[in-house]
Amino acid sequence: MFSRIRKLQYSLAINEALHQLMESDNSVFVIGQGVKSPWYVGNTCRGLIEKFGPKRVIDTPVSENAITGAAVGAAIAGMKPIVVHPRMDFMLFAMDPIINQAANWYYMFGGKLNVPIVIWGIINRGGEQAAQHSQALHSIFAHIPGLKVVAPSTPYDAKGLFISAVQDPNPVIYIDDRWLYKIEGEVPEDIYSVPIGKSVIRRVGKDLTIISISYMVLESLKAADYLSKDYNIEAEVIDLRTIKPLDTETIFESVKKTGRVVIVDIGWKTGGFSGEILSIISENIFNVLKSSPIRVSLPDAPAPASRILEEVYYPNYKNIVSAVSRMFNQN
Amino acid sequence: MRRYSKNFLINLYTTMLKIRICEESLVEPILEGKIKTPCHLYTGEEAIATGICASLRKEDYIFGNHRSHGHYIAKGGDLKELIAEIYCKETGCSKGRGGSMHLIYPEVGFLGSAPIVAGTISLAVGAALTSKIRGENRVTVSFFGDGATGEGVLHESLNFASLQKLPIIFVCENNLYSTHMPIKECRPNPYIFKLALPFGIKSFRIDGNNVLKVYETGKKSVELCRKGGGPIFIECVTYRLRGHVGPDDNIQGVHTDIRPKEEIEIWRKKDPIKRFERYLLKNKVISKENIEKIRKNIEKEVIEAHLFAINSPCPKKEEVMKYVFKD
Q: For B89, which of A19, A20, A216, B312 could close a Cys bridge (C-beta 3.0–4.6 Å)?
């Protein structure tokens, strides 16, 4: 039996994962604001309510705290809920059920009850949406013991990581970005999983390692092409896929080979996840570094609305290229 | 009177007394520093957990809060494991990782307690939602205090539970104080039960120190929930005879300068256990000798639980990372 592979949009890969998960396991259900509305969740939830009914596809009032808490409570009672936050910024209302309750429950009761929940936050970069409709908050969740955090960049991983997240017995924060929804890629028709905690090398190179996640993997790959063509620099690009637990093995192996590292984050710099990766590199393989690492991230400022300001605010492949050329000019 | 079997009434009494003796047995070890985990004693509120849990089946779910020793005992959790948890021992119900404020006993439907005020209300809604999705006839009870009525999540939870017609009973144990704050400083309207009404939720305000009244209201509410008539809200008016946390009574004039002495005296006269005892004696359900016998048995059980806890091992240092993630 061969699984048919065809091209699928990122958002439809998620949609397929949801259909297959709900078909194969009665304890899976979807809950959150707008699950029956493309206005909120694009086409990721297309056809779910028609097929599985409003008992398992629950559109809710704007009550992130109670709804996320209800999903956590359902997981404690043995269900496998998927709770969606169509704009990650609104997820901040749900920090108590996510951090105090879901993340701690298994530990604070000595392993009595686990919380198999997926908390799905969608980032909405840009679009003149300003500071409260666009934030990437992955670093906050990665800080919390008991949470796993994934952020896929391809349709293949979007489906495979969704399936892994739902099948994981722990709370998993699944983060995607509206800018990825229209990306097409090869996706098997079958149900399959992409392991949590395993990153992937998207491009092999010998001169430096670019470590990135989610949407910024696309910009990193574009930057790598320019670096090769215009500067004769061959960059290795690691797509982390999982932010926590971190696949340090792949990172160390690559950085040992190249001796140079650029972290390209989707979020802010201060206290952000890029700093964590650099710390781990410094603590473990400091001696292999040939030059100071560089971080490409959002500036430490709220997202502006104006498209002119957005052009400066959101880094792209050009910022990565200039960071790399700066690094090589230092030596 | 005749509606209840003698056994049933004696069981209610025994459960209340067990909670009381258990709570009071903690005072000395707390004062001696043998117990450090913050203990929010349930003394004075025993009729609520006892009456509500008596109306539930074993498989029904409850969620507790910071003051949940009573809920744990009333739902049928093991006493030794409770006391061991309070001593933070490996043999405790949460393996010494939770302490007094994180009790659990899934075997009897106690899915957990946690001290973030109102934090477990939405979790209980989720357990009730599970029953609805699975088509089970299970009822969930959320226990919380009057302090939780200041949290937005309670209102969100009432709204969503009502929209979904969930089999859940919101039990507010109104002991008139939110830690140090008297209720009149927390709420312009002291009648908590009224806050459920705008959500279309049937709501009661009852004497929380009358165990039969609590049981009857609980029973009626459980029956409604099983027939699709949920959610239900019950405000149980009560008083904690101890202070907010630990054995300190929070009497005016001492450093936790909160409650007038006369107020505490008034409520001592309404002690739910003494009241029920008088009722049982008057109706000849039980004799003074029987009461003594019951008390002795409980005292013995509680002492044994303390000895079990004291002699139990602590969690192993090398296992500090155990239970962060489930494999």
A: B312
B126 inside 8 A of chain A by CB: yes
| Segments making up each domain of chain B, as ranges | 6-311
Beta carbons of B325 and A170 less than 8 Å apart: yes
The one-letter amino acid at B181: M
B130–A79 CB contact, under 8 Å: yes
| Closest alpha carbon to B236 in B216, B210, B198 | B210
| Residue from A58, A64, A107, A115 to probe the interface with B (highest B Cβ count within 10 Å) | A107
B61 lies within 8 A of chain A by CB = yes
Report if pTM > 0.90. Answer: yes
DSSP code string of A295-309 = EEEE-SSPPPSSHHH
Question: For chain B, which ranges sit under pLDDT 50?
Answer: none
pLDDT given for residue B122 in this prediction: 98
> Can you tell me the ipTM of this complex?
0.96
Q: What's the average model confidence in pLDDT over A104-131?
A: 96
Interface test with chain B among A63, A83, A109, A143, by most B beta carbons within 10 Å: A109
Distance, in angstroms, between B259 CA and closest chain A CA? 31
Query: Which pLDDT does position A2 carry in this prediction?
Result: 60
In tens, the pLDDT along B233-265 reads 999 999 999 989 988 888 888 777 788 999 999
Query: Can you give the pLDDT at residue B187?
Result: 92
Q: How far is CA A130 from the centre of its chain?
A: 21
Please answer yes or no on whether B153 and A96 come within 8 Å at the CB atom.
yes
Q: Which domains does chain A have, with CATH numbers?
A: 5-188 (3.40.50.970), 200-330 (3.40.50.920)
Architecture of domain B6-311: 3-Layer(aba) Sandwich (3.40)
Does A133 participate in catalysis according to the annotation? yes
Q: Can you list the positions of beta strands (E) in chain A?
A: 5-9, 28-32, 57-59, 80-85, 118-123, 148-150, 172-177, 184-188, 200-203, 208-212, 235-239, 242-244, 261-268, 294-298
| Subunit contact B127:A77, Cβ cutoff 8 A | yes
Q: How do residues B95-140 score in pLDDT, each as one tens digit?
A: 999 999 999 999 999 999 999 999 999 999 999 999 999 999 999 9
Establish how many alpha carbons lie within 13 A of residue B211's alpha carbon, considering only the half-sphere containing its beta carbon: 31
DSSP 3-state of B63: strand
Position A128 pLDDT exceeds 90:
yes
Contact B127 A56 (CB under 8 A): no
